[in-house]
Specification:
57% helix, single chain, 2 domains, mainly alpha, 4 helices
């Protein structure tokens, strides 16, 4: 019985070595190496990027103001509010327009943009 197990182990070892030299094993090793590089780069990026620097929505907006849904984003909606607080309040043009169009006054986009532009112009003066 022991001799049979030893013979089976030798045959299995030869089969594994032969399979490890084949094209499928080579492709598998390349795929694993690629995935390790991608995972390492993703980890490095996650560690090196400070929390909250995710683009237009860095800081939370004014209390009571909801974020603009990503599906409604248009070019220029990432413009920051020009309020005079010590640091940026977190509101963007898109957040304010979304609030005016859905929760606040339920205006159309042109009216909401006119209010945004008027408020930003008043702060600049």
């Amino acid at each position: 019985m022991g001799q049979r197990l030893d013979a089976a182990a030798r045959i299995s070892a030869r089969t594994v070595r032969a399979a490890a030299r084949g094209p499928i094993a080579t492709q598998l090793r390349e795929n694993i190496a690629f995935l390790r590089r991608v995972a390492g780069a993703a980890f490095t990026e996650a560690v090196s990027t400070p929390r909250g620097s995710g683009g237009p929505h860095e800081a939370p907006p004014h209390p009571g103001l909801e974020r603009q849904p990503a599906a409604e984003f248009r070019p220029g909606d990432d413009e920051h509010c020009t309020c005079r607080s010590p640091s940026w309040c977190g509101a963007t043009k898109g957040d304010v327009l979304h609030d005016l169009m859905t929760h606040g006054m339920r205006l159309d986009r042109q009216q909401a943009e006119a209010i945004w532009d008027e408020a930003q112009g008043a702060r600049a003066d």
